[in-house]
UniProtKB/TrEMBL annotation:
<dbReference type="InterPro" id="IPR010708">
    <property type="entry name" value="5'(3')-deoxyribonucleotidase"/>
</dbReference>
<dbReference type="InterPro" id="IPR036412">
    <property type="entry name" value="HAD-like_sf"/>
</dbReference>
<dbReference type="GO" id="GO:0009223">
    <property type="term" value="P:pyrimidine deoxyribonucleotide catabolic process"/>
</dbReference>
<dbReference type="GO" id="GO:0008253">
    <property type="term" value="F:5'-nucleotidase activity"/>
</dbReference>
<feature type="active site" description="Proton donor">
    <location>
        <position position="11"/>
    </location>
</feature>
<protein>
    <submittedName>
        <fullName>5'(3')-deoxyribonucleotidase</fullName>
    </submittedName>
</protein>
<dbReference type="Pfam" id="PF06941">
    <property type="entry name" value="NT5C"/>
</dbReference>
<comment type="similarity">
    <text>Belongs to the 5'(3')-deoxyribonucleotidase family.</text>
</comment>
<dbReference type="InterPro" id="IPR023214">
    <property type="entry name" value="HAD_sf"/>
</dbReference>
<feature type="active site" description="Nucleophile">
    <location>
        <position position="9"/>
    </location>
</feature>
Length: 177
C-alpha cells in the first residue's frame, strides 16, 4: 500500500527562524523586540522593512545555525512510519541558503533521504496529500490538505487548519490513519 505524502516546510516549521531573526535584528539595530511584540505583524512590519530583513537572511551561516523546533525530530521520525515525508523549502530566493539548508537537514534530520528534499522557488507545483507550512501563500495552492503551523505573522489568519506545535501535528495526522 502506498503511503500518503506530507510536504513539510523548513523555516518556521522545522527550524525556529523567529528566534534567530529576533536575535540578529536586535543585535544589528540595537532594539529589544520580542516574540510577543511582533505577534500578528507581517515580517516586513515586525522587522521594519525588507532591507534589514533581507540582509539578515542573506548573511553567511544564518540558515545553517537555526535552532530546531521542539519535538520536530522525534515527530518526523514517528510520521515516517506511516507517511512519506518531503522537506520542501522555498529556498531559491536566498541562494546562499541552499547549501546551508542541506547541511542543516543532514545534521538534524539525517533520516530524511536526499531524494525527499525539495529546494524550490514557488511551492505551487508541490502535489502531496498534506502540506505543513507557516505561510498562507504556500498553503493556498496546496492540492492536498493544508495545515498551518502557527507563527507570529499568521496568528490572525483563520482559513486553514492550524497547529501550534509538533505534538498537535502528530495528533492531527494520526486521526487520518
Amino acid at each position: 500500500m502506498k503511503k500518503k505524502t506530507i510536504a513539510v516546510d523548513m523555516d518556521g516549521v522545522l527550524a525556529d527562524i523567529e528566534a534567530s531573526l529576533i536575535e540578529c535584528y536586535n543585535k544589528e539595530c540595537g532594539t529589544a523586540i520580542s516574540r510577543e511584540s511582533i505577534q500578528g505583524l507581517s515580517e516586513e512590519d515586525a522587522f521594519h522593512g525588507r532591507t534589514i530583513l533581507r540582509g539578515i537572511l542573506n548573511s553567511e551561516n544564518f540558515f545553517r545555525t537555526l535552532p530546531v523546533m521542539p519535538d520536530a525530530v522525534e515527530s518526523l521520525r514517528q510520521l515516517q512510519e506511516n507517511f512519506e515525508i518531503f522537506i520542501v523549502s522555498a529556498a531559491t530566493e536566498f541562494p546562499m541558503s541552499l547549501h546551508e539548508k542541506i547541511g542543516w537537514l543532514g545534521e538534524h534530520f539525517p533520516f530524511i533521504s536526499w531524494e525527499n528534499i525539495i529546494l524550490c522557488g514557488s511551492k505551487r507545483i508541490i502535489n502531496t496529500d498534506y502540506m505543513i507550512d507557516d505561510h498562507s501563500k504556500n498553503l493556498d495552492y496546496c492540492i492536498g490538505k493544508p495545515i498551518m503551523f502557527t507563527a507570529f505573522h499568521n496568528i490572525n489568519q483563520t482559513h486553514h487548519l492550524r497547529v501550534n506545535n509538533w505534538k498537535e501535528v502528530l495528533e492531527t495526522l494520526e486521526k487520518t490513519l
